[in-house]
Amino acid sequence: MLRIIWRRSLRYLCALLFSATGILHLLHPTLFVVAIPPGFGDPLWDVLISGYAELAGGVGLLLPWTRRIARYGLIALLLAVWPANWYMAFEAHRFIAVAPPLFWILRVPLQIPLIIAVWYLE
User: Fold this and answer.
1) Residue 86, Cβ density class (10 Å: 0-12 exposed, 13-18 middle, ≥19 buried)
2) Which of 5, 12, 36, 68 has the smallest count of CB within 10 Å of its CB?
């Protein structure tokens, strides 16, 4: 019983996290454009695509018939944005106005538990 409650709570938390982040990407894309490493195409386009993907994945986690594809899609998204996290960690001095360097550095390893959490959502 506790396992079911834990997984359901984790699902709602992840759905909220990804939906909110997706909405933020879509409403304020310029905040995220600086995170796109050089050579990854049009940064604005990348931010908008990731925003829609996060929003779709977050909503998809709430619907039983879309949950599995949402999980796979979110894991793919988390892997796809990992280079941006690495870029921000290595270039943390450029983002100091937004958050301290330690924040950007810790985002890199925290991606792994987030991927694991999404994998275990049912």
Assistant:
1) middle
2) 5
3-state SS, the chain, equals CHHHHHHHHHHHHHHHHHHHHHHHHHHCCHHHHCCCCCCCCCHHHHHHHHHHHHHHHHHHCCCCCCHHHHHHHHHHHHHHHHHHHHHHHHCHHHHCCCCCHHHHHHHHHHHHHHHHHHHCCC
Domain ranges of the chain: 2-34+41-119
pLDDT digits (tens, 9 = 90+) for 17-71: 999 999 999 999 998 888 889 898 899 999 999 999 999 999 999 999 999 999 9
Question: For the purposes of burial, counting CB atoms within 10 Å of the CB of 36, is it exposed (0-12), middle (13-18) or buried (19 or more)?
Answer: buried
CB 9 within 8 A of CB 39: no
CA–CA gap between residue 119 and residue 96 (Å, rounded) = 32
How many other C-beta atoms lie within 10 A of the C-beta of residue 110? Answer: 11
Find the mean pLDDT for residues 83-88.
90
